[in-house]
Protein 1
Amino acid sequence: MKLSQFSQSVAISTIISLLAIPVAWAEETDGDVIRVGNVLERLADASQSEYTFTLTNYTSVDMLEFYASPQTATDWEDNILGDNTIPANGGSTTVTLTGGRGCLYDFLAVFADSDKLEKYGINMCELETHTYYDS
């Protein structure tokens, strides 16, 4: 199996909420000027929440391990799947990561045939699904 493809989707509500910042935070304004400090504080709080997404394996091989580490980490953290696997041909699981370490994460998926696929710079603040496919 040659792995080189993946797809992901982001929550539309995340995009809509980001576009609506001036409206939602209208109480944070002085006349026509938004107080940037308050906006940045709220964005920082949002990036420290819990991240949940669906991880799907549409490859022809079982996924044995999955790692998600903040981009600031110097090594891969623990295998999120533990003793579980994600079956080939459409198996999926819900992954929940605790926040507080920024939005950008790197992923490593390890498959039963020893293939590995690394993906860098995944924005967890917007991620809803992450799917692996055979090429």
Protein 2
Amino acid sequence: MAEEQARYPLAGINEKARFTQLEDHKWQVVRRQKIGDRVVEAREKWMEWNPRYNSLYAEWDPGMMIRAHGHNSDHIVFVLKGSMTCGDRVCGPGTHIALDHGDTFGPFIAGPEGCTSYMIMMGDPGSFPADPEGFEKLRRERGVEQLPDAQLDIPEWFTDSRNAVTKDGS
């Protein structure tokens, strides 16, 4: 009796895998600022968000600033196109940033062409500020006005704490 040849893919191998496309997800505006007469945004598409992790695709407009901060989970950032600075380090395409739970990084400033990245947070994606006074000074020096946060479409089990720490959403 001839041995049966394995057929690929194996039966049942992809039954629990979840597949989506970028276009399946809506943009969430997570931060807005005004630089001169121009409004800039940080937008995210949440590819998968559950209590164990959040994976997202992010686009930041040129000049968008994100405060120095930490996360309540391990956090990975991978720059896909454009650039940003993280503190004094320029991060272009191919840059991988790993942050352990409770550690801090930033501030971030999107480069002249903006920045597109992919991020994963393993656990609670909530954040906390690392240097609010320093960020406020940097915003004033660059003429950046923080705009109120837009409403997010978030899971019922997650609390949006963006404005809980600072009144202006920084």
Protein 3
Amino acid sequence: MKPITVDGGKGTVELDTEGVLQLIWKPGTVLEAEDVHAAMATVNEIADGCEYPMLIDISNTQAVTRQAKSVFSLKCAASRIALLGSNPVNRVIANFAMARRTLPCPTRFCASRDEAMAWLVRSLP
């Protein structure tokens, strides 16, 4: 499927041929609550009532606001989430997103796409 732009234009979502949802945020993105809500709505629309593993590429994300962080505890069509980052700043953003929060599905930070995809597809039937 072709990537769908999230309302607000800060990212895209697609369901790849392996059955993994991929959310890619644009370079320099500062995530606000409305961005995360819009991404979740797009994910739910694509999933059409099913659950899929999801890769969220935060490698170019600049920051996540506290309000956006609070949205991460809401359930969407993701059965598990791999947060893909490429540097220590991404790890801090991921830890900030996951800290002291009950997440709706298993979530892990991965430093490589191969590691993230291996973890995600191992959950597929």
Protein 4
Amino acid sequence: MSPNHTASNWAAGAGPYAPGPGPGPGPRGGKNGLARAAMVLGIIGLSTSIGVIGGLLGVIGLVLGLIALKTTKRTGAGRGMSITGVVTSSVAIVVSVLVAVFFVWYANETQECYQPDSFQQYKQCVHQQLTGN
């Protein structure tokens, strides 16, 4: 045992593996709240992009992500989150637009079927409208 490591020092928590002064992990870089918000909105927008809300969240996430990307050039913090927010928000917008286009197309193709007497009649009408039979 070295003279610096006595039993009383070890009892006080100054053992050979105790953290001490010197180089170690420094403070983390500054946080970028806009990047985090863009990433969260992008992920939520993507997961809800089948509805209209996903596209709206995607637009907000895209704007925040682009602003956060400009901020990261200055500060260097949050670049990955900014890129994640921009990408997921963009995909959420595209999926929402495709879903909306599909619903408009479907409603146009099956508009004669909206007054059925039963669900079975509705299914038959939709099948006839979509297949052309």
